[in-house]
Amino acid sequence: METMITNQQTRVVFDQRLEDTITAVAAAAVWLHGLGPDTELSILLVDNNYIRKLNSLYRGEDRATDVLSFAMNELGEDEPAYESGEINMLGDIVISLEKALQQSEEYGHSVTREIGFLTAHGLLHLLGFEHDTETGDRDMQEWQEKILRAANLER
Question: What residues have CB less than 8 Å from 93, skipping those under 6 apart?
Answer without folding.
Answer: 41, 42, 43, 44, 67, 68, 69, 70, 119, 122, 123, 126
